[in-house]
């Protein structure tokens, strides 16, 4: 008789089972929340890294084209892409909005140019390959260039006949911030490029 009674009393009650299931659900929900949050942070980090890589690629592309170009000319004033680049005469400058130059290739090719442009609340880098007739935005919309701290610096652009015996050198200094999904990340990029063609 006692053996039958012990068998009936073994096992979990309904309340114990409900408590155990509730605790299990709570633990799973907390774990899932942490996992989803970590995945979201990873995705944001990847997207931000992609934007920074884009900026690095832009400045590397500018440096490569300037290195093989010649006739550096300082573009100053306004920060608005001009319809024509004007003078082909080499010109040095310390705080230029942009730079125009003769690209590598046949003589008489259209001038190339890079310039910092301000439109509304955005500032970005544009490029022209046809004497300034058309301009293409290079930097992503999320990257805002700080026009007070960014500049092109050109040294020794003038030919030796003008009394300049320095090999042309340009420095690109870009400062700004990337705004992505209400997260602001500052950046500062700089590169110096010496003209490959001898001009001393």
Would you write up a description of this structure?
By secondary structure, the chain is α+β, with helices and mostly antiparallel strands. It has one domain (33-194). Helix content is 31%, strand content 32%. The strands form two sheets. Strands 1-3-4-5-6 form a five-stranded antiparallel β-sheet, covered by helices on one side. Strands 2, 7, 8, 9 and 10 form a five-stranded antiparallel β-sheet that branches. The N and C termini lie far apart (113 Å).
Supply the number of helical segments.
2
How many extended strands? 10
What is the helix fraction of residues, given as a range? 25-40%
Order of helices and strands: HHEEEEEEEEEE
Structural class based on helices, strands and sheet pairing: alpha+beta
Q: Which overall shape is indicated by the principal axes computed on the Cα atoms?
A: rod-shaped
The tally of domains stands at: 1
Low-confidence stretches: none
User: How are strands sequenced across the largest beta sheet?
Assistant: 1-3-4-5-6
End-to-end separation in angstroms reads 113 Å
Percent strand: 25-35%
Mean pLDDT rating: 82
Give a short account of the largest sheet: 5 strands, antiparallel
State Rg.
Answer: 30 Å
Write a short abstract of this structure.
The chain has 200 residues and is of the alpha+beta class. The protein has helices at 2-9, 14-67, and strands spanning 70-75, 93-96, 98-102, 112-119, 122-128, 136-137, 143-145, 151-155, 169-180, 183-194.
